[in-house]
């Protein structure tokens, strides 16, 4: 059961990288469908990355990884989905929502990169980062095709990115926090750590039922 759970967790981490990359590159390349001055919007889409990374540097070690990842993804999703109720004649309001989303996705992207590295033991950390980057690159490949759906409906790309970001952001609320936690060096360390966590939870459950002392005596 623990193996299945671990596999599902890592699949989720890789999907998180995929969604972040898809939304990041998709928004970066969607300036032509946002309206307004294309050159100005393109520059603004790039400039919002500066405050995003500065804010992330200030909050990463204060709020933790999970809050940053989930919070920024949810904010990006809400900003993009808000374009559904905004009149297309109000071009700069749509652009403002896209800029907020791009800034949020950028901050989330930085946090996810750190978080991914902290999920793997030292001996396979490079491999884990490599697989995560592989899924992220797939997201970058898919993004232009999603942007092409604007020919069907002008708001389609923003809705797709917003839905993905909001969904994965809400799901990220259940992720374990890694701030100030010791990272495993070997696979054996990861197994031992997982075992201790399971045993502690098991004992806590027994204590609630008043059977903890009996269980411990049986083990002795």
TrEMBL record:
Q: Could you tell me the superkingdom of the organism this chain comes from?
A: Eukaryota
This chain's source organism reads Sipha flava
| Domain Major facilitator superfamily (MFS) profile: residue ranges | 1-180
Gene Ontology cellular component annotations, sorted alphabetically: membrane
- Would the keyword Membrane turn up in this protein's UniProt record? yes
Which residue ranges does UniProt annotate as crossing the membrane?
7-27, 39-60, 67-86, 92-115, 127-146, 152-175
- Provide the protein name: Organic cation transporter protein
The record's annotation in SUPFAM superfamilies points to: MFS general substrate transporter
Look up and give the membrane topology term.
Multi-pass membrane protein
Q: Which molecular-function annotation in GO is an example for this chain?
A: transmembrane transporter activity
